[in-house]
Amino acid sequence: MSEFLNEPVLELRRAPVRESLLEALRELDSRLPLEVPVLVGGDRGAIEGLDSTDPGAPSRLVARAGRAGEAEARAAVQTAAAGFREWSAHSAAERAEVLSGAAGRLRERRLELAALMVRECAKPWPEADADVCEAIDFLEYYARAAPSLDTGAELLQVPGERNTMRHAPRGVVAVISPWNFPLAIACGMTAAGLAAGNAVVLKPAEQSPACALALVEALHGAGVPPDALALLPGFGEAGAALVRDPGVHVIAFTGSGAVGLDIVRAAAETPEGQGHVKRVVAEMGGKNCVIVDADADLDDVVPALVGSAFGFAGQKCSAASRVLVHEGTHDALLRRLGGAVEVLDVGQAERFATDVPPVIEQEAQERVHGYARDAEAAGRLVARPERVPDAGWFCAPTVWAGLDPDAPVLHEEVFGPLLTVEAVSSVEAACDAVDSLPFALTAGLFSRSPATVDAVAARLPVGNLYVNRGITGAMVARQPFGGNRRSGVGTKAGGPGYLLQFTEPRVVTENTMRHGLVVE
Amino acid sequence: MPETEVEPEVQRIGRDLHDALPGRSRNPVKAIDARAMELASRDAQLRAALFRLVDVTPACRSLDDLAAHLGAYLEEVGERPPPIEAALRAAHNAAGRRALGLAAAGGVRHMAHRFIVGESPKAALRTLRGLWDDGVASSVDLLGEATVTREEADHYAERCHEALDALADSMGRWPSRPALESDSSGPLSRVNLSVKVSALTPLMRPEAPEVGREDAAQRMRPLLRRARDLEAHLHIDMESLDALETTIELVFELLDEDEFATGPSAGVVLQAYLRDSPAQLDRLLEWAGASTRTPPLTVRLVKGAYWDHEVVEARQHGWRPPVFEVKAESDRNFESLSTRLLSARPLVRVAIASHNLRSVAHAVAVNRATGGADADLELQILRGLGDELQQALASNELRVRAYCPVGDLVAGMAYLVRRLLENTSNDSFLGDQQRGAPIEELLAAP
């Protein structure tokens, strides 16, 4: 296989490229609603029980989907056990070819898939396009990592003894994926499970079943056996059933901290008849801080903060949530940041002019509004754009300052377009604040002092620290992504070692000495 | 017109200009600058340290802070020449840091003064008048921080209005300089202001150019009116490719409005390093051909100042860089666009902005060969970079305009770094010239 390169995002600054996306959206709209069945083995289940709607126009039905429950989850795991035998019999190189083929299928449909994310998740074009590219990247990257699982790591060898280690698949992987990267994250966890030789049962978020179907179609079309990959559209009940199922070996989850911790607890159970301990790979929430030192260039800081906090309405686990700025720079930053947020365009995801799209659903809107009320009680509003559409689950992007240090909005994940700013006396004080949080996903630092950069990098516990740039948009192979502390369990996605979590190491030691003769 | 016919003229004009370049030794201050630049262009790490120092200077709270930053940047230079070692030792104690901070601040200020003619248009007038007396016109560019808010956009527009007023008020009283004040198309404005669209709106969105265009138009319209009333020339600068659509569409839209049918004189920029610049020129000429405005559109041809930015951005995204990556391709394109522009007169006025002796000589030769008077070709240089060429051009009675940035140190930093980058680049014409490349090489066809 050729050397891994990231799939290039579309050059949206060119008008014909933008027009091609709008054309793809028109074409998609003419086919709505899509149909997403429960897919287990070769069987297509009924299409009823789950409706996926457009967050920007909730009356628009994007997809009608099946609703998997406990019975479907059980059947899917049992079928996957059979699929596992078939799929794991292929060499890693053969599996890699299939995954790369699936990447090709996504590439062919990239405009349509971006349009689907615009509709199903109100993900704006640049982010929707990047999501498709990231999905392709995961497939291509894990495909290239798979063959090394067969050859294994180098071990110490002494005369008369041959030591080998390889990584065998574990069995059935349950993937429980979120709606905010409806293609990329579902794809990353699924592709990793498959690359390592496991069968996968995918339970996508109830808000984005159609995106998940596109992924499953690409993988089946490229040669993943039907039994080795099942799709379970549905609500939490299907996910909960998978987590408890004794036939599941690995649970790969990305989502909220509350659900993640429930999964960790439930997976620890070893009921009678379950001959293994489940492994959990979980990416959970964050409370991502950006530290701005006195020597930062606000010309860079302001756009980076706006993009990191309000892009996709702040609905990324990496999104900026708290700014900790040196007291000497605090007022200037607040003035410029406030002015920059006042001019943000809150609108439909399909408009290229939109800066802030609606949030995913009513519940999310209510949650963000709740935090805004808390912030109002505990501090003062710095900025809020004047115009916010009524229809659709819109939230005004807001910036808050002067908050009571104990205000929940400073400590809890909002997962929406809300940014707080606090003055700190020094970078060390800012590091103390970050270090006191239970989360450790992403953080940012703006400083032009090499010593400060080194000190902060050494001090902060976060999984991904971004220096003098925005803190979202991790790229496969360039920024392996994942949190520490209560933000995550496991190795970084899109980086070295990620596949190992879906395997069991096996070491073989052979005595090569017979009657004093070394037979090698 | 076949290029081979003008080639002997290009060589002759180039040699004449080269002979007219002032000797560097006559200006001791510039000799020091040249040494520093030369040192920086030889050593990539030293160059990085210098750039980072210049970049951070306005944000440093004290001399001590500045010295600490400088010390940290120099730490990262592998092989340090003796003066740098001395500077590093100084950074280790408070008294030393103060001295080092003073020296660094002084150095940066000195460098800034070379490129920035004054903190305000009023403060710049003395220098501008000096240029005028030497037979050199000017275009004033107001440096500013990035515009991220409405207030900042309004403030920039206000500064532009004040600059137009201040320049018009003073320049109106300057003595007549016929060679600088008209060409075959008619009178040329003394007052010439360059403006940046990205400074006139906080809403530049490369993927939605109409947003920035509509917002900037609200501030650009009053500026055009003011320029028209003062008979000033307004030149719309070009920035990175992300701003191109917004900028071009804004200019076309506004100049097509009835109230601007007879003025002001206005101009745009064509960047020869862009691969699709020939198509951009098609578009400009098509618009100019269809337009019924009386003052012809001025097209300033430049190489382009965002090369590193464009290449890095493209590489990070996996795109083919929108710019030529081989300098000779860019240079050839520059000559081809020069020829096309000069042949398109009187539809457009042509300004050639280059420090490359070969490119300038080529434009002068083509202008003459196509029957143009020397006054019909404007040659532009950047203050601080092209001063010597400016003298040579003026002494050869060519019409030259100096692009003069105005603003304070903080605001000027991005500009300053771009100019330094240009001046210390390994394959720049100025670099070749500073290294003393032979005249044959400097004038060779690209």
CATH architecture of the largest domain in chain A, by name, is 3-Layer(aba) Sandwich
Helix content of chain A: 25-40%
Q: Just name the CATH architecture of the largest domain in chain B.
A: Alpha-Beta Barrel
- CATH class annotation of the largest domain in chain B: Alpha Beta
- Class computed from helices, strands and strand pairing of chain B: alpha/beta
Assembly context of the chains: heterodimer
Which strand-content bin applies to the residues of chain A? Answer: 15-25%
Radius of gyration of chain A: 24 Å
| Low-confidence residue ranges of chain B | none
Which structural category do the helix and sheet elements of chain A fall into? alpha/beta
Per CATH, what is the topology of the largest domain in chain B?
TIM Barrel
Structure summary, number of beta strands of chain B:
10
Gross morphology of chain A: globular
Radius of gyration of chain B: 22 Å
Total number of helices of chain B: 19
What characteristic shape of chain B results from the CA principal axes?
A: globular
**Low-pLDDT segments of chain A:** none
Q: Summarize the main sheet of chain B.
A: 8 strands, parallel, barrel
